[in-house]
Amino acid sequence: MADASRIHPLAGRKVANPAVTLTPAEPAARLSLRARPDAVAALSKALGVKLPEMPKRSATSKSGGRAALWLGPDEWLVIDTAGGDPLADCAKVKALHSAVDISHRNTAILVEGKGAEATLSAGCPQDLSLTVFPVGACSRTILGKIEVVIWRTGETAFRVECWRSFSAYAFDFLEEAARDAPIAA
Amino acid sequence: MTAYRVSGRGRVDHDRPVRFTFNGKTFEGRKGDTLASALLANGVHLVGRSFKYHRPRGILSAGSEEPNALVGVSRGDGRAEPNTRATVLEIFDGLNTASQNHWPSLKRDVGAINDALYMLFSAGFYYKTFMWPKSFWNKVYEPFIRGAAGLGKSPSVPDPDTYASRYAHCDVLVVGSGPAGLAAATEAARSGASVMLVDEQAELGGSLLGEPGADINGRPISDWLEETKAALAAQENVTVLTRTTAIGYYHDNFLGLCQRLTDHLEKLPEGAPRERMWRVRARQVVLAQGAIERPLVFDGNDRPGVMLSGSARTFLNRYGVKAGNRAAVVTAHDSAWLAAFDLAEAGVKVAAIVDVRSNASDHLLKRAKALDIEVLSGWTVTGTGGRLRISSIRANPVSGSGKVGPARKIACDTLLMCGGWTPSVHLFSHTKGKLDWNEERQMFLPGAPTEETRCAGAGNGAFGLLEAMTEGASAGAGAATDAGFEAKASTYQVDGEVPCAGVGVKELPTDRSSSRARAFVDFQNDVTAKDIRLAVREGFLSIEHIKRYTTTGMATDQGKTSNMNGLAIASDAVKRPSPAVGLTTFRPPYTPTTFGAFAGYNRGDLFEVTRRTAIDSWAEENGAVFEPVSLWRRAWYFPRPGEDMHQAVARECKATRESLGMFDASTLGKIEIVGPDAAEFMNRMYTNAWTKLAPGRLRYGLLLGEDGFIRDDGVIGRLTADRFHVTTTTGGAARVLAMMEDYLQTEWPELKVWLTSTTEQWAVIALNGPNARKLIEPLVEGIDLSNEAFPHMSVAEGTICGVPTRLFRVSFTGELGFEVNVPARYGRSVWQALNEAGQKWGITPYGTQTMHVLRAEKGYIIVGQDTDGTLTPDDAGLAWAIGKTKPDFVGKRSLTRPDIIDPNRKQLVGLVTRDPKVVLEEGAQIVANPGQPTPMKMIGHVTSSYWSETLGRSIALAVVEGGRAREGQTVHVPMPDRTHAAAIAGMVFFDPDGKRLNA
Amino acid sequence: MLLIRCPYCAAERPEVEFVYAGEAHIARPSDPSALTDEQWKNHLFIRTNPRGAHFERWRHLHGCGRFFNAVRDTVTDKFAMTYRAGLPRPTASEIKEARP
Question: Are residues A127 and A56 located together in one domain of the fold?
Answer without folding.
Answer: no
